[in-house]
Amino acid sequence: MLKRILIANRGEIAVRIIRACRELSVETIAVYTESDREELHTMLADRAVCIGRDRPESGYLNMENIIEAAKLTGCDAIHPGFGFLSENPRFAEMCEENDIVFIGPNSSVISLLGDKIRARQIVSQAGVSIVPGSDGPLPGIEEAKQCARKIGYPVMIKASAGGGGRGMRRAESEEELENAMMEAKTEAEVSFGDGTIYMEKLITDPKHIEFQILADSFGNIIHLGDRNCCVQRRNQKMLEEAPDFRLSDEMRTKMGRDAVLAAKTAGYENAGTVEFIVDGSDYYFIEMNTRLQVEHPVTEMITGTDIVKQQIRIASGLRLNMAQQDIVIRGHSIECRVCAEDIYNDYAPDPSEINFLHLPSGLGVRVESALYSGMRISPFYDSMILKVITYGDTRLEAVRRMRRALGETIIRGCKTNLPVLQLILYNREFLRGDYNTGFMEKHGDHLLELYDAAGGRLNESV
Ligand code: ADP
Ligand code: ADP
Ligand code: MG
């Protein structure tokens, strides 16, 4: 087993990883930037090392400093969490060069799957269906027009290096195509330093359903069931649940098999997620994320498996201690991503000081957070500050428990998206469980209006 792990991340996910390490008696080294000195992860880890200033390239993205910190503190592994360096093949390679275990797949697999065009090609060759689209990158407008005529409008232009919902633009018709390409390309260049774009048919209001994968270094690969991540704003997830309420057993079995096949084809190792979009009884692979995911807790709740511990076991060279038939899905789980945002100002981040905090608890409630009263939320990083997860024997129980848990959550000093999350839990369409990725576009503004009209009170008429 690994002995000492450096956690190259911050916030709730760094705390989540420290928890798993503690229970495994693995020592932890936190890293932090100058203004993050007082963050919770620096206090909970066995040791903490400053790695630089707050600008991303000199802090949590500073590969040299992080590797140096790992060497100086005698770490045998680095856990990258999500975001930051978690999907950076060069960083995984630097770990390999320095004899440090990178907790994730190897650098060539990260590089292969991080290139969405290549990922589409290899999984499709293995027989997994992908969204109809371009065979490779789009070199120019003429090729794009030709491809769009073949697959039919509307289409989606996507960045091959894309992530976090960025570098993606729709085009409803040929007139919109050039502009969509330019916008997607520019955003991709700015965000990912790579402007390569490709085309997919735009599936109207699909469902986003993904499968959690675990793969060891002996070629054993299993999945831990599905998650529904349809509540999205600007293609970014807000609330997730597992399992999907409406998926037939037949589709679940087929999709799970394809998810494992996709991972196997890529030579995958460690934890990962295969994402699909679902249109009626058709489903299409969209990408594979080569890291721990924000929403991993809902899978942990319904399978009783600690995914972070599994990651550490796998990276230690241990065999998977369970087979596919051992995975039993029990009950239902929901996660809400609480963000420090002003919902009345286009969800602009509100990094203020938290002057009073009360987090929910009680039966079936789990909190993943790095918050404490009196802390200042950093303006330099993601606005997600807290995850509230509930478990119930049934979906309805998980929903009612989440309403209760969010109701108990008191955060004073900064604005949050809590009211919107609460309103979703009262929405009839959501309650029926047959909503899709168009949910927030359809209901987002309306939810707020109803909330205002009711003077901030919640009821089931939304
Ligand atoms: P998921 O929720 O499926 O794990 P997301 O795409 O929402 O994946 O991203 C997970 C985390 O990583 C989020 O906190 C997000 O801000 C961050 N993230 C994703 N892509 C990028 C990126 N290209 N650059 C910086 N952070 C990113
Ligand atoms: P990212 O890497 O940013 O997570 P994804 O390819 O996973 O990008 O897509 C993110 C979300 O965008 C999906 O969950 C879905 O809601 C939407 N999306 C992506 N591709 C399509 C498509 N071809 N048609 C419709 N919606 C799509
Ligand atoms: Mg995705």
CATH topology assignment of the largest domain: D-amino Acid Aminotransferase, Chain A, domain 1
Would you report the number of β strands? 20
Helix content: 25-40%
**Bound ligands, each once:** adenosine-5'-diphosphate, magnesium ion
Beta-strand content bin? 15-25%
> Mind telling me which CATH architecture of the largest domain this is?
2-Layer Sandwich
State the major sheet. 8 strands, antiparallel
- CATH superfamily of the largest domain, by name, is ATP-grasp fold, B domain
- What is the global morphology? globular
Descriptors:
462 residues, alpha+beta, Rossmann fold, Dna Ligase, domain 1, D-amino Acid Aminotransferase, Chain A, domain 1, 3 domains, 8-stranded antiparallel sheet, 35% helix
In short:
By secondary structure, this protein is α+β, with helices and mostly antiparallel strands. It is built from 15 helices and 20 strands.
Describe the fold and architecture.
- With 462 residues, the chain is an alpha+beta fold.
- The chain has 3 domains: 4-103, Rossmann fold; 132-201, Dna Ligase, domain 1 (2-Layer Sandwich); 207-453, 2-Layer Sandwich (D-amino Acid Aminotransferase, Chain A, domain 1).
- Helix content is 35%, strand content 25%.
- The protein is built from 15 helices and 20 strands.
- The protein has helices at residues 11-23, 40-44, 63-72, 89-97, 107-114, 116-125, 141-151, 174-192, 249-265, 296-303, 307-315, 395-408, 418-424, 428-432, 439-453, and strands at residues 4-7, 27-33, 47-52, 77-79, 101-102, 155-159, 168-171, 197-201, 207-215, 221-233, 236-242, 270-279, 282-289, 332-339, 341-342, 348-349, 356-358, 365-369, 384-392, 410-412.
- The strands form 5 sheets. The protein has an 8-stranded antiparallel sheet with strand order 13-12-9-10-11-14-19-18, with helices on both faces. A 5-stranded parallel sheet has the order 3-2-1-4-5, sandwiched between helices.
- Helix 7 (141-151) crosses helix 8 (174-192).
- It is globular, with a radius of gyration of 22 Å.
- The chain starts with a strand and ends in a 9-residue tail after the last helix.
- 48% of the residues are buried.
- The mean pLDDT is 96.
- It binds adenosine-5'-diphosphate (2 copies) and magnesium ion (MG).
- One adenosine-5'-diphosphate (ADP) is lined by residues 82-83, 163-164, 191, 236-237, 289, 293-295, 382, 384.
